[in-house]
CU044_5270 family protein (Dactylosporangium cerinum), 328 residues
Amino acid sequence: MNEQIMNLLTAADPARDVPVAPGDVEALLHRASHDVTGYDLRPPVRRRRFLVAAVAAAAVVAVTGTTAAVLVRGGGQPPAGPPVVPAPSGTPSCLDRLADSAMTAMRDGVGGPYEYLRTAGTSGRTVQMPNGNFARFTYQVETRTWTAEDGSVHRRTINQPPEYADAASRTFFRNNPSWLPHTGTREEDLPAGTPRKQVPAADPAAMAEALYQPRENGPSQAITGVEELVGQRILDREHRIAVLRFLARTDGILCGTEATDPSGRVGVVVTGPEGAGPRPSPGEHGGRSILVSPNTGVVLAAGYTDATGTTWHTVFLDQYFTSVAGAP
């Protein structure tokens, strides 16, 4: 294209003087989760879920199993996110009703030197083969952790055998076994001082300050913050109520549908839509969800909701204090 044509096109562009904002982080993350970059067969670096860093000049995506990391172009000071609004007057919201009815759980008040957490979920990996097609597998994983007050952790991970998407995937991974996870039980010990989330005060404002960051990601970030907290710490009744009050006062959070988690427990689905930050992205992007017990306010599971329903990627099976690490 020569310079004259470029100048004519530029002059005819009705949006030539419209500033383009950085975009919505959660929407980029959703689109990134369906893409894979890099075309070699080097093992990618393992990353924790939902890692978002605004430090790059363009969006860069790397997918490993169920993990997606998105680096998003900065644009000066980030805009303020959706507000944590005051409690509504009149008829209580779905979340306020859950908070009002939250009873003491069976193991509330039972002490012990170790926080015991047992979770189950699905992991996996997608790799581009030399012929350009993709090989995929998933596997079920159960994790049990015993965490002492000093931060030391005993962890037991149980990986089930992989399930391949098709025959080509099976052949590829069997010829490249370094991509496959360890199958069976693995025990490991982490030293004292291992970082973990701190439990905020049993106050909705304190929960909002600790869990709803970065605020510009929109309401789905509030759900992510709650998921990460209950995945690492045990919450008593007062803290569970504070979490529900915080979500009830967070603009954009949806609540009310009943669902059943993979272990058969019934709860209420609470969802934060993705792509609904201060610069909303067009279209439907689904949302991050948690499943809350209508009796105790305990978070039972976490997952993703779209037009087809909710897929639970993590189920929180046991959460209590115990006096013995490594048992049961």
